[in-house]
Amino acid sequence: MSVLVFADSSEGKFKKTAFEVVSYGKKVAEQLNTNVVAVTINACDSSELYTYGAEKVITVSNDALSTFNAKQYTGVITEVAKSENATVVVIDSSIDGLYLAPLVAVSLEAGYISNVVELPSSTSPFTVKRKTFSNKAFSNTEIATDNKVIGLAKNSFGIHENTVTGTVEAFEVTVSETGVKSEKVERVTGKVTIADADIVVSAGRGLKGPENWGMIEELADVLGAATACSKPVSDLGWRPHGEHVGQTGKPVASNLYIAIGISGAIQHLAGINASKVKLVINTDAEAPFFKAADYGIVGDAFEVIPKLIEKLKDFKAA
Ligand code: FAD
Asked: How far, CA to CA in Å, does 96 sit from each of 5, 30, 100?
């Protein structure tokens, strides 16, 4: 018996979520008195995972797996899980992870719990806490199947160093043809993605027009943050659709979410509830977003943001 975690990577480098799932998997393995094994696909330096507790790293290198394909990745994880006799598989809750985890669960005839936020409160019965109702509530959910797949919510457990002396083992897989192939992935270069960002600077219709986004981008640059927006802003073509967050857009689970000129409609909040700290800047003290905020500034974005940028620049320079 072992705990298997999928340590996801991009262009050979581990994503931050890889370190979080390994940290989590290590603790679950301790609860079950077993080992944690990490599986990587086309990642470079597997030994990085020892720092977070991976006692064994299985590396799969195959050009046919160079871009994400849910079915092919499912095949790999299933083969490794069977060979390692893994009864618990942990996968992150990124967009790819949300495709992957249910397929892996079907393939392993496992119970699957998504959006998990804590270590199991009990391993017999196996019970974990998960977010539900668009992150507004929690439920303690039991998995009764022998095999279990856990989808770990981003930033819920955190990254914990737990250095071990690990081993690396190469694993050969046969990659099946699925009829779907990504030819080329074009990245927006030099920008932090919403999924990977620790800080997200997001703006809404209160910004009045696309010509005013310069200060939003500057604030994001100073903070090393990703930029995002509300739905009407992308519908109006002020910003690209990839920046739209909320119930019908991308989910955000950053450490800090800065909402500027966004009213805080329920559909917007549904996508950003999982962010740890929320700062709201709005002229209207009655804007619903303030009820969900940790910090709020009642003020005009056109006055507040330039001052904020200036102060942050001074702070960084000092
Ligand atoms: P507004 O509601 O117009 O708010 C603008 C805010 O800016 C106001 O609070 C105002 O006080 C403030 N403001 C104005 N001037 C300034 C200034 N100078 N400085 C600072 N603040 C200022 N919306 C999403 O965002 N994401 C979704 O995924 C989403 N999905 C939806 C799904 C459905 C089925 C439906 C029906 C709606 C959905 N919506 C979604 C839309 C949502 O209901 C709201 O209409 C939308 O979020 C409002 O966007 P906003 O806050 O940018 O604009």
From this structure: 15, 27, 6
